[in-house]
Structures are given as structure tokens and as C-alpha cells.
Amino acid sequence: MKEKGRILIVDDDNYVMLSIRILLEQHYQDVRGINNPLQIETAFEENHYDVVVLDMNFSAGATEGKDGLKYLRQIKELSPTTSVVFITAYGEINLAVEAIKEGAFDFLVKPWQNEKLLTTVSAAFQLNRSAQKIEELTSKQSHLTSLLDAPFSDIIGESDAIKSVLEQIEKVAQTDANVLITGENGTGKELVARAIHRSSLRNQEVFLNVDMGAITETLFESELFGHKKGAFTDAKSDRVGKFEAANGGSLFLDEIGNLSSPLQAKLLRVIQDRQVIPVGANDAREFDARLICATNAHLSKMVQQGTFRQDLLFRINTIEIRLPALRDRKEDIPLLADHFLNSFKKKYHKNGLFVPDYVIKKLTKYDWPGNIRELQHAIERAVIMSDGKQLHVGDFNLQNVNQTEGSGIESFNLEDLEKWAIESSIKKHQGNISNAAEELGLSRGALYRRMEKYEI
Ligand SMILES: Nc1ncnc2c1ncn2[C@@H]1O[C@H](COP(=O)(O)OP(=O)(O)OP(=O)(O)O)[C@@H](O)[C@H]1O
């Protein structure tokens, strides 16, 4: 099978260039030859090359190899990771050594042996791959480091409510205190839990996540505390539980309000003792994980109703961070909308998509019962469904917007009636603009113009 490599051969002797090309084409997917070194720059503008096989002398009669060194420097400038292999005449070996000092990978002396040429190019190709890998890893690492340096960069918002949340995160992150994050669904509880971990001293260790709402009674102990081989029928080998696996890091227990009473008792014992006993084991094991819990339930109400243990609540809520509903920080909606729009425009390759101000205003008026997750999904849906030019309010499928406006015809103002007819028709056709336009007797363009006018 051919290697997925790109090789460029630069030699003004067409015979040499062609014979190397024919040989290398049997082993590499993309091999190109040029006989004029002045084309090197254009060749690199068109493609990246893993290896360049470069003649040492180009000017007729020249034997000093200065041309080769000049083009080597040019290639290294254009693409530092590309490996360069020189082809040199017998008398130029000193120069070839100089070329290696300047960054060439190796050289071959004319007349070359095919076997030797293939081995040299293959080694140059492997070196290039490793260099590229290192470059990739370095850029990934610097990206991760910048994320660590800016642990809140993905929490969008400038409202007083979100600023106060960020301040609290910063304060608690430095401690090992147990944190309870409360807030409605989709308000960003998991995002905040991750931010606490990232800005804590434990950020080099793991962040593990357990959804207490999804865990069954029977699996609870085995998942969280681990089990010994043979402890029950399916226990084919020893298993480390989440508490132990999160050692040194943070353990995020989501939907903690969903735990049954017996499981609350088990969890309380483990948090109090700071040790777990795996199912089927006799000895307890200590763990050192920072606990972050989250819920959308009112735990203190549940305590009053007798459905959540007060002692467990006291253990987990050393610090409580309450996340505001999106409707209580509406001033953040334009920022969040812009953030999600940009990322979905990129994801769905609709960079030209434009969102008029009146649409953003409409989004700000809506109450977003599903909070930021609902906003995120609504924007993703709108971007997918759009024709790639402009978003309209109708693209967002909002549930309660304008429920009161236009739900009955109380005014006989013609404009009000037209707006009502358009809204009703779009609703009837579940957002399908073509069908609504047909029913209203308008072209799609005319309907869009009216939608813009009435801010629908
Ligand atoms: N302030 C914010 N800035 C940017 N994105 C946010 C913000 N808050 C939440 N999100 C995004 O909204 C989505 C929902 O957030 P998250 O899962 O953290 O909410 P949650 O409160 O844990 O939800 P649930 O209670 O349903 O588990 C995620 O994709 C998250 O990245």
C-alpha cells in the first residue's frame, strides 16, 4: 500500500527528475516534480510537502552548491517541518555536509542506488511525520494551558447575577469545601462544576461525573464504591468505584435530589467516613476526592417534606452556589445568542448567516423555560433550518412568544390582522414558510419581508 505522503522533486535535469518520480510514485500517494526551483514557492502555496528531494546545483555549470543551500533555506522558511534530501554530485560532499548543518535531512550522491534513495526518503518521511505530530501536540497543549489559565472563559455572561457566580467559583475553588450547585435545568450547573475543578489545585487530576438520576439501586454501590471479583454474578473482575477513581481530583454528583432514602443513607456514611468499602470486600479504602453536587430540586423543601436527609444536605452544602434562571438575567441573552450563533455557523458552514437586531430582541423577550440549553438548541435548530442568509423569529420555534399577542382578534386594525394571519399560518404549518406563504397567497420573499416588518 502506498504511504499517504506528498513528495516534491526539484531538479532541472528532466531525466533525473522523472526517474526519481517514477520510482517514488510506486510508494507514495502524491509525487510531484518541477524542473525550475523558482516554482518552489508556488508549489508550497498549493500544497504541504512532507519531503523535498532537491538538486544541489541549478545554474548551468555551477558546482558550488550555493543554489541548493539557498533553496533549502527557502523551503525551511516556507515549511519548517518538511524534510529535505539533497541529490549531489560526487565532488560536492563537503557542501552536502554543510547542508546537513543547515537543516537538510540527508544527501544522496549521483548516481544513486534506488534502494538507498527509497530508504533515505522513507526515513525523511518518518521524521516529518514525527515533527508534525510534535507540532500538533504542542499546539494542543498550549490550547489546553490557555483553557486552564482562563477557567471561566466558556461561561458567557456579564450580568450582575453571573458575575456574582464567577466570584463565588473563584473563592470556593481554592478550598476543598463540598459545594452544592442549585438551579433549574439547563442553567449551567455542570459547566460551573467543571470551572470549579479547573480553577482548583486539583486541576491536574480527573473530574468524574455521575448522574444520580440515571443510576439504578442495584448498581449504585458497585458504580460508586467498586466491587471485588465474584461479589455478584456479573462481577467478572475487580472494579474501582468512582470515589476511588476520582482520587486527587473532583467527583461531580449530578441530580443528587433523585436519590432514594436508602441510597442517601449509604452516601452519607461514605462522605462522613471519607472511605468506601467495595461490594464483596472486607476492608475500607480511604479516598480523597473533592465533592461537587448539583440539583434542580429544592432540597430544603424536600427536607421539610421528609424526602431528603437533613444530615446529608448539611454534609454536601458547605457552600451553595445558586444559578439564576436565564429569564432572570435577560441582559445576557444577546451575548449567549451571539456565542452560540458563531459556533453553529462554523459547525454547519453557514458563515454568511445574518441575524437582524429585531430577532435578537425577540429572543430576549422570550422566557426560556429550558434556560441556556433551550437557547442553545433553538439556535442550532434555526441555523440548520435557515437558508444560510438570514434568521427569522419563526426559525426558532419558540413556544410561548406572542401567546397573548394575536391569540384572539381584538383589534380590526388591518396591520394587526395581517400580523395575526401570518403568525397563525406559520404556526399551523409548523414553521414551514413555503406552505404558509402559499396559504396566504404570498411569495416566500413577500412573506419574509412582512415577517421582518412585524418582527415575527
Ligand atoms: N453561562 C454559559 N455560557 C455558555 N454556555 C453555557 C452557559 N451556561 C450553560 N451553558 C451551556 O448550556 C448547556 C447546559 O448546561 P449544563 O449542562 O451545565 O446545565 P445543567 O444545569 O447542568 O443542566 P441539567 O440540570 O439539565 O443537567 C451546556 O451546553 C452548557 O455548555
TrEMBL record:
InterPro entries referenced in this protein's UniProt entry, alphabetically: AAA+_ATPase (IPR003593), AAA_lid_NorR (IPR058031), CheY-like_superfamily (IPR011006), Homeodomain-like_sf (IPR009057), HTH_Fis (IPR002197), P-loop_NTPase (IPR027417), Sig_transdc_resp-reg_receiver (IPR001789), Sigma_54_int (IPR002078)
Q: Which Gene3D superfamilies match?
A: 1.10.8.60, 3.40.50.2300, Homeodomain-like, P-loop containing nucleotide triphosphate hydrolases
Residues modified as 4-aspartylphosphate are 55
Q: Name one GO molecular function term.
A: ATP binding
In what residue span(s) does the Response regulatory domain sit?
Answer: 6-125
UniProt KW keywords: ATP-binding, DNA-binding, Nucleotide-binding, Phosphoprotein, Transcription, Transcription regulation
Top-rank lineage group of the source organism: Bacteria
A Pfam family annotated for this chain is Response_reg
Q: Where is the Sigma-54 factor interaction domain?
A: 155-384
The alphabetized list of GO BP terms reads: phosphorelay signal transduction system; regulation of DNA-templated transcription
Q: Which CDD domains match?
A: AAA
KW Zinc-finger (keyword) present? no
Instruction: Please give the name of this protein.
Output: Sigma-54-dependent Fis family transcriptional regulator
| Organism expressing this protein natively | Roseivirga misakiensis
